Write a sequence for this structure.
């Protein structure tokens, strides 16, 4: 009698914790996991810059271009921006073949998007159903004495003795809290043949204090004086904008995307080509 009571008690507890239909019990479906449904390709948020595919975001994760490229079997509409200004939509298609050489990544072409110019312009394309835009932030002149002093104090604080030239100061509200962050960029000539070293970091007010966060640019062949902030956007939809940077060397451009998370910058995309 005691064994029967114990069995009924355990069955009652188990039934409360994990409700099971009678049909599931007899058909062997108890605890069945719903079948995974892969996202439709149109749900992917894809980023391309000057025809170079950088990567995308879908289903809670970043997807770099080598993984994303084989999925691109269909034509999608992209939102087109030139130097941060919206130009409308265009249909994109991947090239049939691409080189695996360094600084030669996969490309996306836009045959119905016509734009010609003798000057270099940043053409950014986003795909996906959500509204996307790329922001440039507001610029402060590098001649600003306050930020020259800010740079000097920052470099002294990290033990750098060389004289750096302030080249760019950009303000933007990165995380939507109503308060601007400030991106400070500088470089100095490291040797007699024109190689240079650069620094790019963000100043952010946290808990009443100004803190600095360096963006880890590690391109060994990139000239630091040709480092450029191309814009800011929120590709993963978490409310904090990512940072798009370009670096330029002899005969190529390299594009990098950084995410600010957990009090630091992490590179999520990179691609380069002879553009």
């Amino acid at each position: 009698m005691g064994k029967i009571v114990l069995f009924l008690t355990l069955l009652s507890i188990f039934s409360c914790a994990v409700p099971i239909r009678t049909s599931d019990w007899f058909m062997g479906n108890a605890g069945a996991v719903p079948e995974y449904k892969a996202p439709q390709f149109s749900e992917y948020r894809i980023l391309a810059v000057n025809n170079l595919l950088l990567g995308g975001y879908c289903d809670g994760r970043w997807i770099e271009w080598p993984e994303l490229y084989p999925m691109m079997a269909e034509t999608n509409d992209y939102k087109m921006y030139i130097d941060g200004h919206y130009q409308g939509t265009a249909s994109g298609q991947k090239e049939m073949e691409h080189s695996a050489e360094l600084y030669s990544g996969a490309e996306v072409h836009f045959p119905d998007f016509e734009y010609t110019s003798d000057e270099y312009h940043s053409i950014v394309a986003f795909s996906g159903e959500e509204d996307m835009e790329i922001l440039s932030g507001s610029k402060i002149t590098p001649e600003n004495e306050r930020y020259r002093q800010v740079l000097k104090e920052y470099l002294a604080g990290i033990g750098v003795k060389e004289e750096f030239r302030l080249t760019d100061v950009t303000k933007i509200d990165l995380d939507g809290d109503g308060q601007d962050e400030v991106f400070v960029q500088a470089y100095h000539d490291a040797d007699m043949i024109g190689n240079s070293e650069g620094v790019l970091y963000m100043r952010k007010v946290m808990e009443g204090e100004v803190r600095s966060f360096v963006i880890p640019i590690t391109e060994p062949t990139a000239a630091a004086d040709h480092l450029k902030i191309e814009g800011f956007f929120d590709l993963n939809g978490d409310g904090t904008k990512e940072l798009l940077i370009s670096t330029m060397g002899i005969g190529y451009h390299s594009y990098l995307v950084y995410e600010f998370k957990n009090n630091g910058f992490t590179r999520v995309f990179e691609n380069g080509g002879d553009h």
DSSP finds four helices and 16 strands in the chain. The first strand starts at residue 45 and ends at 49. The helical segments are 2-17, 22-27, 65-68, 145-157.
